[in-house]
Design goal:
The chain has 319 residues and is of the alpha/beta class. The protein has helices at residues 19-32, 51-62, 82-96, 112-123, 164-167, 177-183, 185-190, 193-207, 215-224, 279-289, 296-316, and strands at 11-15, 36-41, 70-75, 99-104, 107-109, 130-134, 149-152, 160-163, 228-232, 237-239. 40% of the residues lie in helices and 15% in strands.
């Protein structure tokens, strides 16, 4: 299904100053040849002597569109923080198109990721329960999914897709957070004291701009709409940005989330018969990815399990 079929869903790509990363992501985008490509580019920082040239080289990479494609650009004239760049950039995307698939310059997708998102966007376009589709699976084989995807409360930002009808609920400033916090609403959403404590801290720090990001605001917006995210039964995205100079993932270098292997989605998709959240998988994600008291031991265990899973799949995959 992924060979020789032009992708009709718009793709939005965020770029900055990482030339080699951008080349790798763009090479995969070129394979699926989207009919529309929207590019969000930050400007170089004035105190970085080499950044003007690197940003120019990155923009040159994404100008190499050699297929039939409408290219829309939002290139910043002055440098802004990632919170502002991405939140305003995504707002701009949904001003142009109804649906989009989003990638950052360090997220390498399997080509099947695009077609998986495209099918999900069409299938659930009118289902208000579904807020997003993500390409990550961080179950590490612990909770095998009998279908091609499952429904989760957890949104993963390394390769995702959504609709304008869902994004309208996004608020980068989290104006509703004080009322949500003071009413104890998270207790009703999460029903887990440790998870409530974790997310309350993150949301509060994001609200106070101590954490400069865009995606915790989206998680809150999804939860306040009782929204679900579609997650694949296998990992479709490998983040290669866990290195020196990364904005938010430098501390995750050499963990199980660093350059996770990907596996192609199999088509035709096997759809779940009901839209029901996978509670067991969500609990695993909360305690491994979002638990502030989790020791490094669990990360090492997950990394070993991931390596074993990759080896097994190597020998059982059809040739």
């Amino acid at each position: 299904m992924t060979s020789g079929v032009q992708l009709q869903t718009p793709v939005a790509l965020t770029i900055f100053n990482r030339v080699e990363h951008t080349k790798r992501v763009f090479a995969v985008i070129r394979q699926v040849q989207p009919a529309q490509l929207l590019i969000i580019a930050n400007a170089p920082r004035l105190d970085r002597a080499d950044e003007v040239e690197r940003c120019s080289q990155v923009r040159a990479v994404v100008e190499q569109v050699d297929w039939d494609c409408q290219v829309l650009r939002k290139y910043a004239d002055t440098h802004v923080g990632i919170r502002q760049q991405l939140s305003t950039g995504f707002n701009w995307v949904f001003e142009q198109v109804e649906t989009a698939i989003f990638l950052e310059d360090d997220c390498i997708p399997d080509p099947s990721f695009f077609y998986f998102c495209q099918e999900m966007l069409e299938r659930y376009k009118d289902d208000q329960r579904i807020m997003a589709i993500s390409g990550q699976n961080i179950q590490f084989g612990r909770h095998p999914i009998p279908h091609s995807y499952y429904f989760s409360r957890h949104f993963h930002s390394w390769g995702w897709a959504s609709w304008r009808r869902a994004w309208q609920h996004y608020d980068v400033d989290m104006a509703s957070w004080p009322q949500v916090r003071d009413s104890g609403l998270l207790n009703h959403i999460l029903a887990d004291n440790q998870a409530v404590a974790y997310w309350t801290t993150l949301f509060q720090q994001t609200y106070e701009r101590k954490i400069q990001t865009w995606d915790y605001q989206w998680t809150l917006a999804c939860w306040l709409q009782s929204g679900l995210t579609i997650l694949p039964d296998r990992n479709l995205i490998s983040n290669i940005g866990h290195n020196l100079g990364a904005t938010h993932t430098e501390h995750q270098a050499n963990t199980c989330y660093d350059t996770m292997p990907t596996e192609a989605m199999q088509f035709p998709l096997v759809h779940p018969p009901h839209v029901v959240r996978h509670d067991q998988a969500d609990r695993f994600t909360q305690t491994t990815a979002f638990d502030p008291d989790l020791s490094a031991r669990l990360h090492r265990k997950a990394a070993k399990l991931n390596t074993k899973l990759k080896t097994v799949r190597k020998y059982i995959s059809p040739h």
